[in-house]
Design a protein that fits this description.
30% helix, alpha/beta
């Protein structure tokens, strides 16, 4: 825990200052511009952890969806694996950032199967069924009072998760997979309770301790009721 305290004291103020500017981030063969205010995959464990997990999946020809896409890292990894991608974010800055990163990394004539839009949850996403949904959600139970908190806060009562789990069955194929990355510093019990109210169950797919913090990737399954 000493390393975490040192990070809180010395590095977090530096990171906060650094994130006031647009920066560049590399993940293997991908080069991303990270616009100030968009969730930065370099300084937080979850994005790179989920990216590495998604990279191991067979995605060729699969329909792939990423809510809360931020800079688009996860979606770009999926696209590099030949998935047909739909991603979205509530923040228009993030949407523009994803489009920039897409065009920076892939030939324009080859991006017809990559679709990005601005949407609050699945609200503006045309109803369709995906093979894979992968999400790095905001998970702190605090109200969202400005755009900079979209990537962190899920609402005082977990409004983000309530909407997500409510609409998930309309967008996930019966045999599809939904993966969610979470960390031990979030209220896992409360998130799972919201999921269960909407007939969604958590199955632990992967667990990894990164630095001082345990991170988890859960597969979310939909309960099937037989009359």
């Amino acid at each position: 825990m000493l390393s975490k305290r040192l990070t809180d004291i010395f590095f977090k103020p530096l990171i906060k200052q650094y994130l006031k500017f647009d920066t560049t981030f590399r993940y293997k063969n991908l080069k991303l511009k990270i616009v100030s205010g968009v969730f930065h995959p370099s300084f937080f464990f979850s994005s790179k952890y989920l990216a590495a997990f998604i990279e191991q999946l067979d995605l060729q020809g699969k329909s792939f969806c990423e809510p809360c896409a931020g800079s688009g890292l996860i979606s770009l990894v999926a696209f590099s694996k030949k998935a047909n991608v739909c991603c979205f974010d509530i923040d228009l800055k993030a949407v523009d950032n994803i489009m920039f990163n897409l065009k920076q990394n892939f030939e324009t004539e080859n991006i017809d199967s990559f679709y990005v839009l601005q949407s609050d949850g699945f609200e503006k996403v045309p109803e369709q069924l995906f093979d894979i949904i992968a999400i790095n959600p905001p998970y702190f139970f605090n109200p969202v009072t400005n755009e900079s908190q979209y990537a962190w806060n899920c609402g005082e009562n977990g409004e983000f998760f309530i909407k997500f789990f409510k609409y998930l069955p309309k967008y996930l194929k019966p045999l599809g997979k939904c993966y969610m990355v979470l960390a031990e510093n979030c209220d896992l019990i409360r998130i799972r309770q919201i999921a269960e109210k909407h007939n969604c169950e958590f199955i632990l797919s992967n667990e990894k301790k990164i630095a001082w913090e345990k991170n988890y990737i859960f597969e979310i399954t939909l309960r099937v009721f037989i009359n």
